[in-house]
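Internal ticket #5521
Category: modeling
Description: The requester needs a full-assembly model to guide mutagenesis choices. All entity lines are attached below as received. Residue total reported by intake: 241.
Assigned to: D.W.
Attached entities:
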Amino acid sequence: MNDKALPRHVAIIMDGNGRWAKQHMLKVALGHRAGVEALRAIIRESSDLNIDTLSLFAFSTENWRRSETEVAALMQLLLEYFMSEIDELDENNVRIRILGEKDGLPAPQRRALEAAEERTKGNTGLNLCIAINYGGRQEIIRAARMLAQKALSGELSPEQIDEKAFSDCLYTAGLPDVDLLIRTSGEMRLSGFLLYQCAYAEFLFPETLWPDFTLEDYHRALEAYAARDRRFGGRTWSNES
Ligand code: FPP
């Protein structure tokens, strides 16, 4: 695929693990585990394709409403993932960034995530953003508070609050806006994922359940993105003359 047509920032809502488990008559935790397997190949491929940023929705602020067993299984998977993958991610020059409120997580998970961010902070390859305990409105409110604090302390005047100042207060500070958002399993919702950053994103909603999402599906999505006509509110044709 031609590099120019590649998205700089791909965001994925990995939906359908529960339904996949049900289809296979397995417990939901095994659906999430299969989801992690699908994830590994997509991360490696994004890195090989030189995509700048890949953001994954792993756990929303609303996911705490799930059963205690499912939350515990997801937390355990996250911990295992970081313990087992960190060496390879680091060797592949991947930089990990956590999007969300780490303070609300159990201590072992928080420590593992912070250690992964710290260890990979000098890496210059794929920016791998993992959203955990993340909510899009919560991220925007947090940014508004940070800006209000800066205005109060005189660091910034209200007139200086522009798109740059605002996006610098988001978890994704310094990263490009989302170009392509993929949500698997046929659900057509954003669920608050990167609300601000998705302003001009192209959306794709493949029917595939996340654990069945293969590299072929990923390539198909990237090709569909490349065929889209992105105008950012402008016009690429005219019938005025
Ligand atoms: C949505 O499927 C998926 C989640 C809520 C969790 C996604 C998490 C992972 C794939 C594993 C952890 C991630 C990392 C980075 C190690 P669902 O359970 O809502 O599916 P359903 O709608 O079919 O029930």
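Resolution: model delivered.
Comment from assignee: The pocket of farnesyl diphosphate is lined by residues 14-19, 32, 35-36, 39, 56, 58, 63, 77-78, 81, 130, 185 (CB under 6 Å).
Ticket closed.
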